[in-house]
Amino acid sequence: VKIQKMRKEQGLATNGQSLHMIFTGNPGTGKTTIARLVGNVLRELGVCKKGHVVEVGRSDLVGQYVGHSAPKVIDKVQEALGGILFIDEAYSLARGGKNDFGKEVIDTLVQEMENHREELIVILAGYPKEMDDFLKLNPGLKSRFPYVFEFKDYNERELIELFFRMAKQDDYKIDKNAIG
User: Fold this and answer.
1) What is the SS3 assignment for 82?
2) Cα–Cα distance, 8 to 86 (Å, whole number)
3) How far apart (Å, rounded) are the C-alpha atoms in residues 114 and 19?
4) Is the four-CA dihedral 27, 110, 112, 37 of positive or negative sign?
5) pLDDT digits (tens, 9 = 90+) for 114-160
6) I need a labelling partner for 31 at 20 to 30 A (CA). Which of 53, 63, 130, 158 fits?
7) pLDDT tens for residues 39-91?
8) In what order do the strands lie in the sheet with 83-87?
């Protein structure tokens, strides 16, 4: 990102780098928190004007009748311009079956990503297997997300460390012998 920015400032050709991302992992692994941090970092780097994150799910994007989904997607994209559109459980967009309007969401999203290439970063999040299956539904979808990050579950040691850190932050004193 820094190199592309420097090249642009010098009037050199840039490659139109796409920063769309996929975050996979179980709930509670930090996907949403990291998306917010990414927004802040990209704002500091001058990639995003605002760096804000608009968090949406299926119900925010899928309409109730033909033609209702596209305007919902466009509205959320407009709200996210200058920042990140974070779609949690993105695979659920394709789960409604034959008479569902999730396909309209996916098609509109792909078009809006292209229309706002310089002003929008989309992060899709969800379980690893479901996200992999989801990306296979639309051949053009996977190629638009060059960065895939897998968020592993915390191990026992990490959970204990988090517990002590949160307790300390809230001024609780935990006896070290409390953990066996």
Assistant:
1) coil
2) 27
3) 12
4) positive
5) 899 889 999 999 999 999 988 887 777 888 899 999 999 988 888 88
6) 63
7) 999 999 888 899 999 999 999 998 887 788 899 999 999 999 999 999 999 99
8) 53-56, 83-87, 120-126, 21-25, 147-151
- Could you tell me which residues come within 8 angstroms of residue 63 by beta carbon, excluding any fewer than 6 positions away? 69, 70, 71, 72, 101, 104
Query: Which amino acid belongs to residue 49?
Result: K
Residue 96 token pair: 């409604």
Among 159, 114, 150, 89, which Cα is nearest to 20's?
Answer: 114
- The C-alpha angle 79, 80, 84, rounded to 5 degrees, equals 165
Contact 29/55 with Cβ under 8 angstroms? Answer: no
**Are residues 65 and 101 in contact, defined by beta-carbon separation less than 8 angstroms?**
yes
Q: Where are the alpha helices (DSSP H) in the chain?
A: 2-9, 31-44, 58-61, 69-80, 102-115, 128-135, 139-143, 156-169
Q: DSSP label at 2? A: H
* 130/139 Cα distance (integer angstroms): 16
Comparing CA positions, the residue from 42, 34, 8 lying closest to residue 120 is 42
CA dist 150 and 127 (Å) reads: 9
Pair 177, 49: CB distance under 8 Å: no
Angle at alpha carbon of residue 40, lines to 36 and 44, rounded to 5°: 165
Of residues 96, 105, 100, the one with CA closest to residue 138: 105
